[in-house]
Each structure stands twice: as structure tokens, then as C-alpha cells.
Design a protein that fits this description.
Four Helix Bundle (Hemerythrin (Met), subunit A), 436 residues, Rossmann fold, alpha/beta, GTP-binding, GTP binding, 8 strands, binds guanosine-5'-diphosphate, 3 domains, binds magnesium ion, eight-stranded mixed β-sheet, SRP54_N_sf, 20 helices, 434 Repressor (Amino-terminal Domain)
């Protein structure tokens, strides 16, 4: 599908203003992408209409085609829809902060409880996990294991007590033990049911949570909408945690859930391990849903951070293939302003795969800079001068090893080659030829 989208984009190259036909063409693809990502149909419809309105007649930014411009608008709107800012946990000024995890059975509440406890502990707090799921066999044991793994105490009273009483007693225990955050792991059901809702409401009114977080399995796609709507209506949630994003889901649930509840998605869980959680990034999710890599973030970041003139110069260099180590250094500098390199490389469609093995990390960057700075002017302009003894000198001068110097030279060659490919591709398009 991403390919289809690309084709549409290329067809649209070279126009000044977005017209209705551009929009209709592009939006058909967008609609498909959204539905394929399992976004709720009604949400798709509303969304598409909104974007159409905004897109028709929009000025096309100089560096984009109308098609790209539309997709940029789509991406912007998606990001806005999912929350433009990252929202974290609101800690109470009067501890303990009470967090209640709710959701269907198997959504990932217990696991997420452990993950959150770990995160919160890392922030210097003293969390307590409370085992209030008395129904699922071995649920208490599971939480105890998880708690043990992250070295966070677990409060439990077995499965003979009422969950409301457990939650209340847990809160008191936290107060008398100086725990400043409690995370209550509640029971779920396979389906929404009134009895469960009643229990959760009762827990809520007894321990007055600062955060009721709905844990949603991102693989459940369309169903997520009903679940979120229902929990929000009956219980009033403060935010959502989306789990199992490590699966092959495109994450449409995020969009649907956000749209129907209007509550922020606070965290994304990306695996079974207790480290596999991160703050939710609406922009990344938008691109994931659109299924086109982080192309647009790249476009945007490039627009925001690249010095226009330098970009032009670079373009010329790529075209004339006179890209040197000085330029490479320049690029690294600019990329550094844009965020982690690895992320950036992943964003480049096609390039991501080719560059996977390169593994440029931030620390290496410092080395790379040192290496280039240890080269003479001639060497930077003409890397073929770099024989064995020169490499040794550079390694010594930059505090690196000859292997590191060799690796960089190889990376540089690969980058050059890739740039040549991009340049050729661009020529192909300009001539009206198909790009392959
Ligand atoms: P609960 O019933 O809501 O408490 O759900 P659990 O925490 O017991 O999780 C149900 C299953 O989903 C377990 O096997 C977890 O290991 C798994 N799980 C939870 N979160 C994630 C996640 O982010 N990714 C993956 N792949 N599995 C997860
Ligand atoms: Mg559980």
C-alpha cells in the first residue's frame, strides 16, 4: 500500500496548489490505509472529511509535491487528533498518587502495572503495587512475580477478600509505609459486563484515583472502540495505555480510542519485558497508522532544522557527486540537531533497510567527528588518499582505532553510493521516467 501511495505522490509532482482532484486521489489511499490499520469506520469518515476541507486550496510548500502536501496535512491532523503533546502521569501534590489500571482480561494490566512501577521507581518514587484481581487464577501470584522482578513491593490479601476492601487497605498500607504512588491492578473480564463495572466504580469511589488508566490491547482493533467508550462512560478514565504495539498491528486502535474518548494516550507498551514501555508519541503513531515510515516526520524535521542554503548546496553536491568528508561532517552536525540518528535513518524510506547494518549511535558520532577532524583538508576532499599509514595517523590523532577509521570510510562510501542512487532516482522522475 505504501507503494501505491508513493505512486500517487509521484503522479502529482509539479503543481502549485492542491486541487480537489489531488485531494480525492490522495484521500482514497489515506482512507484505505486507515481502514487497513483497523481504525473505526466512523472515525475514518469524520477524519477524511475534515482533512479534505483543510487540504483543498492549500498552498504547496516549495519542497513538497501536492500529494506530499496532502499527506503532510493528513499526518498533521492525525497527530493533532492523537494529542500533540506528550502527556505523562499527573502525580498528586498530596501523596500517595493513586493510579488504577482497568481494562479487559488479557489487555496487559498486570504486566503494565509492573512496567509502570519500574518507570515510576526510576523517577525516584516509592511505588506500591496492589493486587485487586481476585478472580483470574494466579493473578495475585503473577503480580507478585512482576513486582519481584522490578523490586517493587506488592500488597495483597489473597483472593478471599473483596477487591474494594483490598484497595482501601492497600492505600492505608501505602500511607503508613511511605509509598508515594500506588498502582492498583484490577480484574478484567473477557467482555464488558455490569458486575465488573460496578466493582470498579466502587473501588473508584473508595480510593479516589488521580489516574484511572485504561489498558487497551492494540491488536483488538475495532473492538477497542467499544471497550474504550464503555469504560469511559461508566468509569470516567483519565488516560489510555496501549499495549502489544510490538505485534504486527498498525495501531489504528490508538486513533479510534483517542477519537471516541478524547482522553490522552499516555504510554505505549511494546513487548512482554518489563522495560518495554515508553511515553506515547502521537507523531510516530500517525506515521505508523499511515504505514509509510516516518517519512513526514523526516520532511518536517528537515524543514525545521535544515538550513535552506546548505540544503541547496548539498543537493548540488549530490547531483555533481562531489560529496566529501567535510559535507559528511556537516550533515552529521545537522542531523544531530534533529534527534537520534538511528531514528532518522529509519525514517528514510528504502534507506532504512540499507542502512540497518550501519548502526550509527550517538557515541559513535563523537568518534566520527573526531576522526574526520583528524583528517587533513586534502584527505577530506579526496578519501582515496587514505592509505594504511594515513589511517593509522588519523586513528592516533582522534583517539580511535584503525578499525573505527576503516568502518567510517566504509560508511562514507555507502552513503555516497546511496546518494548517487537518490540522485539517479530523482533524474529518472524528472525525465518523466518511472522510478524503480
Ligand atoms: P491482564 O489480564 O490485563 O492483567 O493482562 P496481563 O498483564 O496478564 O497480560 C496478558 C498477556 O499479554 C501476557 O502474556 C503478557 O505477557 C502479554 N503482554 C502484555 N503486554 C504486552 C505487550 O506490550 N506486548 C506483548 N507482546 N505482550 C504483552
Ligand atoms: Mg491481570
Amino acid at each position: 500500500l505504501a507503494e501505491k501511495l508513493q505512486n500517487t505522490l509521484h503522479k502529482l509532482k509539479g503543481k502549485g496548489k492542491v486541487n480537489e482532484k489531488d485531494v480525492n486521489d490522495a484521500m482514497r489511499e489515506v482512507k484505505m490505509a486507515l481502514l487497513e490499520a483497523d481504525v473505526n469506520f466512523k472515525v475514518v469518515k469524520d477524519f477524511v472529511n475534515k482533512v479534505k476541507e483543510r487540504a483543498i486550496g492549500a498552498e504547496v510548500l516549495e519542497s513538497l509535491t501536492p500529494g506530499q502536501q496532502i499527506i503532510k496535512i493528513v499526518n498533521d491532523e492525525l497527530t493533532i487528533l492523537m494529542g500533540t503533546t506528550q502527556s505523562k502521569i499527573n502525580f498528586s501534590s498530596k501523596p500517595p498518587t493513586v493510579i488504577m489500571l482497568v481494562g479487559l482480561q488479557g489487555a496487559g494490566k498486570t504486566t503494565t502495572g509492573g512496567k509502570l512501577a519500574k518507570l515510576i521507581k526510576k523517577q525516584g518514587k516509592r511505588p506500591l503495587l496492589i493486587a485487586a484481581d481476585i478472580y483470574r487464577p494466579a493473578a495475585i501470584k503473577q503480580l507478585q512475580v512482576v513486582g519481584g522482578q522490578v523490586d517493587v513491593p506488592v500488597f495483597s490479601m489473597g483472593d478471599k477478600q473483596n477487591p474494594v476492601d483490598i484497595a482501601k487497605a492497600g492505600l492505608e498500607h501505602a500511607i503508613s509505609n511511605g509509598n508515594d504512588v500506588i498502582i492498583v491492578d484490577t480484574a478484567g473480564r473477557l467482555h464488558i459486563d455490569d458486575e465488573l463495572m460496578g466493582e470498579l466504580q466502587s473501588i473508584k469511589s473508595n480510593i479516589k484515583p488521580h489516574e484511572i488508566l485504561l489498558v487497551v490491547d492494540s491488536m483488538t482493533g475495532q473492538d477497542a472502540v467499544n471497550v474504550a467508550e464503555h469504560f469511559n462512560e461508566k468509569l470516567g478514565i483519565d488516560g489510555v495505555i496501549l499495549t502489544k504495539l510490538d505485534g504486527d498491528t498498525r495501531g489504528g486502535a490508538a486513533l479510534s480510542v483517542r477519537a471516541v474518548t478524547n482522553k490522552p494516550i499516555k504510554f505505549a507498551a511494546l513487548g512482554e519485558k518489563l522495560d518495554d514501555i515508553e511515553i506515547f508519541h502521537p507523531d510516530r503513531m500517525a506515521s505508523r497508522i499511515l504505514g509509510m515510515g516516518d517519512v513526514l516526520s523526516l520532511i518536517e524535521k528537515a524543514q525545521a532544522n535544515f538550513d535552506e542554503k546548505k540544503a541547496k548546496e548539498l543537493e548540488n553536491k549530490i547531483k555533481t557527486q562531489s560529496f566529501t568528508f567535510d559535507d559528511f561532517l556537516d550533515q552529521l552536525q545537522q542531523m544531530k540537531n534533529m534527534g537520534p540518528i538511528s531514528q532518522l535513518l529509519e525514517m528514510i524510506p528504502g534507506a532504512g533497510k540499507q542502512l540497518k547494518g550501519l548502526e550509527v549511535n550517538e557515541k559513535e558520532l563523537v568518534h566520527i567527528q573526531a576522526i574526520i577532524q583528524s583528517m587533513t583538508k586534502q584527505e577530506r576532499q579526496n578519501p582515496s588518499l587514505l592509505n594504511g599509514s594515513r589511517r593509522k595517523r588519523i586513528a592516533a590523532g582522534s583517539g580511535t582505532s584503525v578499525q573505527q577509521v576503516n568502518r567510517l570510510l566504509k560508511q562514507f562510501e555507502q552513503t555516497r553510493k546511496m546518494m548517487k542512487q537518490f540522485a539517479d532516482m530523482d533524474k529518472g522522475v524528472k525525465k518523466g521516467g518511472k522510478f524503480k
